[in-house]
Amino acid sequence: MSTASADRTSWLIRGAEVAGPGSRRVADLLLAGGTITAIDTGLSGAGAHVVDAAGLIALPGLVDLHTHLREPGREDAETVETGTRAAALGGYTAVHAMANTEPVADTAGVVEQVWRLGQAAGYCDVQPVGAVTVGLAGTSLAELGTMADSAARVRVFSDDGRCVADPLLMRRALEYVKAFDGVIAQHAQDPRLTEDAQLNEGEISGRLGLAGWPAVAEEAIIARDCLLAAHVGSTLHVCHVSTAGSVEIIRWAKSKGWPVTAEVTPHHLLLTDELAVGYDPVFKVNPPLRTAADVAELRRALADGTIDCVATDHAPHPVEAKETEWSQAAFGMIGLETALRVVQQAMVDTGLLDWAGVADRMSVRPARIGRLTGHGAPIAVGGPANLTLYDPAAPAETVSQVGASKSRNTPFAGMPMPGRVVATFLRGTPTVLDGKLA
Amino acid sequence: MKRHLISAADLSRGDALLILDTTEELARIADRPIKKLPTLRGRTVVNLFFEDSTRTRISFEAAAKRLSADVINFSAKGSSVAKGESLKDTALTLEAMGADAVVIRHSASGAAHRLSGWVQGSVVNAGDGTHEHPTQALLDAFTIRHRLKGSQGSQGSGLDGLRVTIVGDVLHSRVARSNVLLLSTLGAEVTLTAPPTLLPLAVDTWPCSVSYDLDSELPKSDVVMMLRVQQERMSAAYFPSVREYRRRYGLDATRMARLPDHAIVMHPGPMNRGVEIAAEVADSPRSTIVEQVANGVTTRMAVLYLLLGGTEFPAVTS
Q1: B255 touches B213 (CB < 8 A)
Q2: Is it the case that residue A21 has pLDDT exceeding 90?
Q3: What DSSP character marks residue A141?
Q4: Predicted local distance difference test score (pLDDT) of residue B29
Q5: What mean pLDDT comes out for the span B76-95?
Q6: Within the 267-296 window of chain A, which residues sit less than 8 Å (CB to CB) from chain B?
Q7: What is the percent of chain B with per-residue pLDDT over 90, rounded to a whole number?
Q8: Can the peptide bond before residue A318 be classed as cis, meaning omega within 30 degrees of 0?
Q9: Which range (A21-30, A300-309, B301-310) has the least confidence?
Q10: What is the pLDDT of residue A57?
Q11: Nearest neighbour of B203 by CB, restricted to A206, A324, A327
Q12: Among partner residues A201, A203, A209, which is closest to B129 by beta-carbon distance?
């Protein structure tokens, strides 16, 4: 794969299929000094490490808008270091770290700490998300402007894990962040309609005797927030859309030209509430797994662009938080290491999305929504050398429960899944080579 | 039969009939002066109760003791559970002590199912949250068959064609869930009657019909089963007041008079007299409430006997 004397920052990727708009093309890519310096056939790799990428897809480095890295506070579940290792192995070059840490990332001090930890880890860029309200309590605005002005340059604000339920507070937050091109990422969940809720309200929850989580609890907040965003002319991003009804509302809002974007998680593209029949809390997540009809509509919406991007909602939890009764278990699933494979299975192998579409939904658009510079640029000469090399033809292997994440709460463990992330490059330096951390 | 009894859906019609027929046989033994049988001698049954339920616990305890099993009662209060021990660790502790069967009562739906993944012995669900309570459904089915079909000649027969109306808080009722599954397996026609707020959203997928009007159901019912309604449901806006609930869904003497002459009135207990059931109904000859308690012990004997594969009990020649 490489020559001993070659320069660590100079790489020749030979014969990759470059995913991008327009026709498919197979080319060599030369990376030097952190940028892509040439894209052509038959490039000579004098002095560069050579990666044979025949049969591999080259994607712009993936960007996750929704990651829980748990540090500070819950280092037993994940740290910035372990979480970004998992991200790199999943093909990510940038992740947005959610604010529900302990302490909450609601001040410049905490977001700068997370940002610095990301810099130190070096496996991918870590862009902190700031809390909308102090302590995620939903009562008073956090110092959004100070976080925006900090070294962490926060642009995405979210109380994720909790909904900004107060309509007036949501309106003010949307309005306020216009001053610095911010975006409010809403966790859409009406708290009253979901008190003690455990599982999507429907046939399965009724049969299992688990308190129902109605789709309308998500849809009502999304409808309200779309109207608020239009009213104040600010940008709303909807986190982890999980129902067909939510898709319909977002489609309607976009048809009006309103500044609304949305994400879907890999698990909501593949799994349904029927998995809860064994009461294994590894399938307990917020928002809950929904029905097959919802899954089909989410896939269609991601394909037609109504849903802008895939975001993992990677949510690590220690073993004891899941080895328990369903109602006492924590909500959440890890997903950084499996996201691209799930998207291949749910979207590409089903013919709904091509690899250019995957590049758009997993890199270009999430970077744009997150206001990230240096990420999500289509693969082009002069662009940043953030790249993911992916082998879609790798024989389907069952997903392992144990990965680079500190936690093991993957719902995909034991499921056969296609594809393999072969290499990840962050500004021209490999973080992953041959499927292993470089 | 499966190794565990967690849901009434675990039972085929054949399994259910075997349990009812075994119960019938045990009921005859219960009429003898010496009630105790040696069939589970040397076996250990653990009653693992995370929720207070003296009625159900002593019923299982009596059942196991009449089969000569060793009984260990484990109550969560004042135990390591109160100190934060997880269900899994409790399970491993019981496992180390060699429990042949664990009878579990828990406030969380699915707790019995989870437990069955952590222990070797048989798990009997004695009520898990708002999910199921299969032995209650079995004793109810037995009571219905015994009352309406007689003890003689009912061996091997189901509840085919009988109309059972279950009234009340179905949404939160493990008794209702298990009864709908078991009674329909046995051929009964089940109707759920409740205010719409107390029915699950997807109740149309259940093997039963639904009515919001109790008065229209009573004349065609062979069995009316009243469910306990919890006072705290009122504060969560499931219904406006106890008074209105009683007026629309309570069973009083006037309503009872609309039942066919042979019809019976059931209640899994504990009752709220004056709320879902009037005192004169609870104490009437139609009421099977006390019989249900007695049948509970014999039904649970049958379940433990069949799950643990006890030795044959002496033939009854009566």
Answers
A1: no
A2: no
A3: B
A4: 84
A5: 79
A6: 278-279
A7: 80
A8: no
A9: A21-30
A10: 97
A11: A206
A12: A209
Q: Check A325 against B201: CB less than 8 A apart.
A: no
Tens digit of pLDDT for each residue in A356-371? 999 999 999 999 999 9
Contact A104, A77 (CB under 8 A): no
| Separation between Cα atoms, residue A101 and residue A135, nearest integer Å | 10
Q: Is the pLDDT of residue A4 over 50?
A: no
Cis upstream peptide for B134 (omega within 30°):
no
**Mean pLDDT along residues A234-253:** 98
The encoded tokens of residue A182 equal: 């911010």
**B chain contacts of residue A288, beta-carbon cutoff 8 Å:** none
- Mean pLDDT, residues A343-355: 98
3-state secondary structure chain B: CCCCECCHHHCCHHHHHHHHHHHHHHHHHHCCCCCCCCCCCCCEEEEEECCCCHHHHHHHHHHHHHCCCEEEEEECCCCCCCCCCCHHHHHHHHHHHCCCEEEEEECCCCHHHHHHCCCCCEEEEEEECCCECHHHHHHHHHHHHHHHHCCCCCCCCCCCCCEEEEECCCCCCHHHHHHHHHHHHCCCEEEEECCHHHCCCCHHHCCCEEECCHHHHHHHCCEEEECCCCCHHHHCCCCCCHHHHHHHHCECHHHHCCCCCCCEEECCCCCCECCCECHHHHCCCCECHHHHHHHHHHHHHHHHHHHHCCCCCCCCCC
Domain regions of chain B by residue span: 8-133+293-308, 134-288
Asked if B178 and B268 touch (Cβ cutoff 8 Å), the reply is no
Residue entry with tokens 């894209």 = A39
pLDDT at A336 over 60: yes
Is A234's pLDDT higher than 80? yes
3-state secondary structure of A124: coil
pLDDT digits (tens, 9 = 90+) for A268-308: 999 999 999 999 999 999 999 999 999 999 999 999 999 99
Q: Which chain B residue has its CA at the smallest distance from A280's CA?
A: B114
**Identity of the residue in A209, A214, A324 whose CB atom sits nearest the CB atom of B177:** A209
CB of A206 within 8 Å of any CB in chain B?
yes
Q: Identify the pLDDT of residue B318.
A: 39
Determine whether domain B134-288 maps to CATH 3.40.50.1370: yes
Quick: pLDDT tens for A42-59: 998 788 999 999 999 999
| pLDDT > 70? residue B193 | yes
Cα angle, residue A204 at apex, residues A160 and B12 outer, rounded to 5° = 155
Cβ separation of A208 and B110 shorter than 8 Å?
A: yes
Catalytic residues of B: 55-56, 83, 105, 133
- Which chain B residues have any C-beta within 8 angstroms of a chain A C-beta? 86-88, 106, 108-111, 113-114, 128-132, 174, 177, 200-203, 205-206
Q: Which domains does chain A have, with CATH numbers?
A: 7-58+382-437 (2.30.40.10), 61-369 (3.20.20.140)
Question: Any CB–CB contact under 8 A between A214 and chain B?
Answer: yes
Coil, strand or helix at A343 = helix
Whether B134-288 and B8-133+293-308 are alike in CATH topology: the answer is yes
Provide the CATH number for the domain formed by B8-133+293-308 in this structure. Answer: 3.40.50.1370
How far does Cα B255 stand from its chain's mean position?
A: 25
